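Key idea: predict the complex, not the pieces.
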Amino acid sequence: MENSKFDNIIHAPNRLQICALLSSLEQVEFRVIRDELGVSDSVLSKHIKQLEDVCYIKQKKSKVNGRERRWFHLTTKGRRAFELHVEELKRIVRGLL
Amino acid sequence: MENSKFDNIIHAPNRLQICALLSSLEQVEFRVIRDELGVSDSVLSKHIKQLEDVCYIKQKKSKVNGRERRWFHLTTKGRRAFELHVEELKRIVRGLL
DNA sequence: ACAATAACTTTCCATCTCGGAAAGTTATAT
DNA sequence: ATATAACTTTCCGAGATGGAAAGTTATTGT
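Result:
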């Protein structure tokens, strides 16, 4: 896949879902993402980290009943990468998507 | 991904491309797929094998200048799985497609 | 008839990724 | 002071992936 719109970081099933979720919801809590994907805390945490490492998402903290919770959102870069990736998927499955 | 339309065999980048190619072309030669994906013989051979193992594709042999060459095509099952997978992708990235 | 070649397939290996479980952190509630 | 919430990291084991090299089988060239 020399054509670089295809993004392996985004393509992994769980991360594709995370990006899709964030692309439509603006801000989502850790627990909501975790439950939506049906994965464990540790697994989600690691995917989150990967997406943060390439600056596709960022987190903000806010307190709910005194406890700190993290809310995630796509960065401009992340949104762009996700859109390009989806375009590339469309190109690949041309006709069908 | 409990929802079973999502197909991990098909999702892998190279295999997604193979399926997409076969879904629009009916019959494609080994070398054409290999060059299209830009992978080595061995790599393509292994992906082909995986798709054959689950009966998503089949091969037919035919001679070109006396040499035997393999042509691949999606089976009904493979075509169906590919279409369902694409539908699932659409569902996941809903809004963007 | 026999070596060379085409067209793959398998094996060998080294790397990467993924996931669950358990342990570790840090801040707050009791 | 201790327990608990909300994650994060570490540990470990399984499976995927890829290239290179070796192995197959049939066919062509001499």
